[in-house]
Amino acid sequence: MSVLFLLTPAQMRRIRPHVPLSHGIPRVDDRRVLSGIIFVIRGGLRWRDAPPGYGPHKTLYNRFVRWSVQPHLRRPRRRGRRARPANHRQHAPEGPPHRGQPPQNGAPDRCIGRTKGGLNAKLHAVCDSQGRPVVMMLSAGQMNDQKGANILAPLLPPARKLIADRGYDSTPFRAALAERGIAACIPTKKNRKQPIPYDKALYRQRHRIEIAFRRLKDWRRIATRYDQCATIFFGAITLAAIVTFWLGQSVLSLVE
Could you give the C-alpha distances from 52 to 43, 56, 163, 196, 240, in angstroms and in order? Predict the structure, then answer.
């Protein structure tokens, strides 16, 4: 006997509107396949190591790749938004390149850049007051936080205040927030001649986005980044955010 962890019927009812419709031959049970995809990403497994109860591992992988390049699963919830990876190209991977090797001309972009810690990618995210991601974007590791903020600014949902660390302290970004009627709670950089006051009590709530990042890293396939393709990797992040923050982590155990 083997124990399979499946999404509950209630969770499937919430996520089904975002699952692409099948065309032609009816698909294999979405609940079982999607649960298998979640099992692989959360555990950091190879696709071929997925338990047989979820069906052929090629079905899990192919379904995940198709869904990752389609817009249906790109939003943590209906009102949330998901920015594409920077320099995004929609594609399916044609075999992962070697880790750390720069992409060749015409190769799919991987959103990997050189940082102080080596070659890496950067996830830009905006969370609501409960620490749930509502806007996300993947970029190369060397992208400046302010540049990422300027890309995400037009996608911000309505809000009264925005909390961010001093890396986002820039006059253009503050102006963009002011135009949206959003008050900035951002500590000023040390090199700013005229420090701008901020609500220190409110700023303590910024720990919630740090907790959100740590919870996403609990998904081992994300923490290690086995998927070199930016689109597929971002699809894994989005699915992890949906399950962790918007569906809840309770699952139904079936013994077969």
Answer: 15, 7, 45, 58, 22
Domain positions in the chain: 3-255
What's the distance, Cα to Cα, between the start and end of the chain in Å? 6
- Main-chain phi, psi angles of 140, to 5 degrees: -65, 155
Tell which residue, 228, 226, 234, has the closest CA to residue 73: 234
3-class SS of residue 184: strand
Burial 184-213 (b: 16+ CB within 10 A, else e): bbbbeeeeeeeeeebeeeeeeebeebeebe
Q: Which residue, among 42, 95, 44, 86, has the nearest Cα to 65 in the 3D structure?
A: 95
* Six token digits for residue 243: 């399950």
Beta-bridged to residue 161, according to DSSP, are 183
Cα(25)–Cα(19) distance, integer angstroms: 16
Q: Average pLDDT of each block of 10 consecutive residues along the chain (256 residues)?
A: 77 82 74 93 94 92 87 46 42 32 52 81 92 92 88 90 92 92 93 92 94 94 90 92 80 44
Query: How far apart are alpha carbons 212 and 237 in whole angstroms?
Result: 12
Q: Tell me if 168 sits within 8 A of 149, measured CB to CB.
A: yes
| C-alpha span between 88 and 234 (Å, rounded) | 11
Q: What angle do CA 193, 197, 200 make, to 5 degrees?
A: 130
